[in-house]
Amino acid sequence: MARALNKEYIRICLGGVRDEAEIRGHRRTYVGAMPGRIADGLKEAGVSNPLMLLDEIDKVSNDYKGDTFSALLEVLDPDQNIKFRDHYVEIPLDLSGVLFLATANDTSTIPRPLLDRMEIIEVSGYTANEKFHIAKEHLMAKQYAANGMTRKSLNITDGAIKDIIKYYTREAGVRDLERKIGDVCRKSAREILNDIDVTKISVKSSNLSDYLGKRKYTSLMANKKDEVGIVRGLAWTAVGGETLEIEVNICPGKGELRLTGQMGDVMKESATIAMSYVRSVASKYGVDPKVFTDNDFHIHIPAGAVPKDGPSAGVTMSTAILSAVTGKKVAAKVAMTGEVTLRGQVLAIGGLKEKLLAANTAGITKVLVPYENEKDILELSDEIIGDMKIVYVSKMDEVISEAFV
Question: Which pLDDT does position 263 carry in this prediction?
């Protein structure tokens, strides 16, 4: 950005900074007093309008010496930073010309008043195709140079790169992907050194496991046949999207609802709402009310060891419970996401790009999305949606008519 704007570039890393004097400087009366990082950065840049990167602003910590976040309030407010006063310099500094750019992994740790002074730009994870092009055009050349390899001595095919992305890494960025390419380069270099007859190595999908070991990850593919009480939901995670298989079993009991699969509080509430909704509409589908009092319902979401939370599985749970009590099958190639209300309204959810990518990878052909999320779908590229049919729903009746066989 600094290069594009023709500005001087200053990077200030705030990770672990806990002293207010790092921002405002020390008073001159202290032994070893120094100006703050902002004043220091301006001096280093030599101009009044550099691009100043405040890296890892969410990892600032506080102690008894002062509140570092509060010291940043004046720095980042364009109406106040015209006369920013550093304790060491003791003359007003004009920061109004500085372009501040802050980075954070999680905005929940940043205080609201400070967040209010910033414009938030969400940067979502890369698609598999974007990772492939980044690896091919940038990461491979970097790792070849770092490990003493050339294109003549090592050829990693496109298929092998795609397999590394799919089966050996699970991340939003490309750091692990770069490490895996580095692993392949180092093992190839050793092979060439050990065997005098080997001058060129070609790494393909078929022999990739010789260099990286057995596959670490597998994609959960769509079921082969339609089943009762099993519905495919979509989930957002920090490393991209995932498909969730929600299972509902009915067994003789006293009307209890059991929830397993490490669900968070919000997800447990969604399950209770889904159960209440299904009970309220059961008569419409010819279900005897005694089913709910004479049986126990067990809802499980694999994988059991992975914590899950959020309201977006509401429609999936409702459909699974209704399928279990009516005995009607749910289409295997249909996935859905959305929050549900007690009246059966389907509400908007987030993380749609990652969820649709996961659905596409799993071989889903039809995805049910809340009607309110239509604007988000229009922003996505054709590469993400692929051949999937997107159906917008606003009520549970529409979900059920699309999902049931």
Answer: 81
C-beta separation of 339 from 270 below 8 A: yes
pLDDT tens digits for 99-131? 999 999 888 888 888 889 899 998 877 878 888
Question: Is residue 312 annotated as a catalytic residue, yes or no?
Answer: yes
Contact 366, 334 (CB under 8 A): yes
401 is catalytic: no
pLDDT at residue 220 is higher than 70? no
Please answer whether residues 56 and 14 qualify as being in contact, where contact means their C-beta atoms are separated by less than 8 angstroms: yes
- Sequence ranges of the domains in the chain: 2-115, 128-212, 227-403
Q: Does domain 2-115 have CATH number 3.60.20.10?
A: no
Q: Are 93 and 85 in contact (CB under 8 A)?
A: yes
| CA distance linking residue 281 with residue 291, whole number of Å | 13
For 250-261, write each residue's pLDDT tens digit. Answer: 888 888 888 888
Active-site residue, selected from the candidate residues 7, 180, 308, 355: 355
Which position among 188, 270, 312, 318 bears the catalytic label? 312
In CATH terms, is domain 227-403 a member of 3.30.70.3400?
A: no
b/e per residue, 8-18, with b = 16+ CB within 10 A? bebebebeebe
Q: Which CATH number fits domain 128-212: 1.10.10.10, 1.10.8.60, 3.40.50.1220, 3.40.190.80?
A: 1.10.8.60
pTM assigned to the model: 0.71
Indicate the burial class of 51 (C-beta count within 10 angstroms; 0-12, 13-18, 19 or more): buried
Residue 72 has what pLDDT?
A: 85
Task: With CA atoms as reference, report the closest residue to 301 among 201, 375, 346, 234.
Answer: 234
Per-residue pLDDT tens over the stretch 154-170 = 899 999 999 998 889 88
Tokens representing 25? 């400087």
